[in-house]
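Worked example 2:
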Amino acid sequence: MPTALITGATSGIGAAFARRLAADGFDLVLVARDETRLAESAGRLKLRYGASAQTLAADLATEEGLARVESRLRDEVDLLVNNAGFGHPAAFPDVPIEDEVRMLKVHCEAVLRLTLAALPGMRERGRGAVINVASVAAFFTRGTYSASKAWVVNFSESAAAEIGNPRIRIMALCPGFVRTEFHQRALIDMSGMPGFMWLDADDVARTAMRDLALGKRVSVPGALYKAVVAVGKFVPRGLVGAVSARIGR
């Protein structure tokens, strides 16, 4: 059985990946901070899919948590899904510096270190894949969140090019607004966002796995967000930043 390790696996996109991969016959390693939710998630996956689901409680903003997951990735893991992440309720520069640094550790340092921990085994076996969950925000300018996600996209494309093995795939996944706990946890009021802007987490995971199989290095789920990203490439970045700031307020 192939093995997949998913960070941020107990809710939202991470939980959707767990369901999808369990249905596809993967053995799972679920990573999150909350041991209780991890155990509940593993139990549901075993009951519904008969899946083997190991749990690993780890805070990826800490050295101890990162080292624990790195160690597990040095065993045989065929697919790594770097999904853990969060948002800030306030805008730059009003976010406390310790919160900004924590975001960079989870969104950037963890993605870098966990990818590097998984790759030696994949290169030795001559196969494997990494999905780094970024965001459509990566293509626009809106504080540390969008900057960190832009790094994830650039890193993923660069790493895929450097590896140069078509059987080892590294892809950035860039969804738009997804119905998850993300905004609630960040205390961000999304009540005014129209329904057509929202994506379903299971649809996002399904699109990601399809695009990974197709060898894409960047996946943008949904026709609407594909159009948004395409148009954004032709709009001056200063104007994009101004519009993003107005939307954020």
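Residues 58 and 65 are 4 Å apart (CA to CA). The mean pLDDT is 90.
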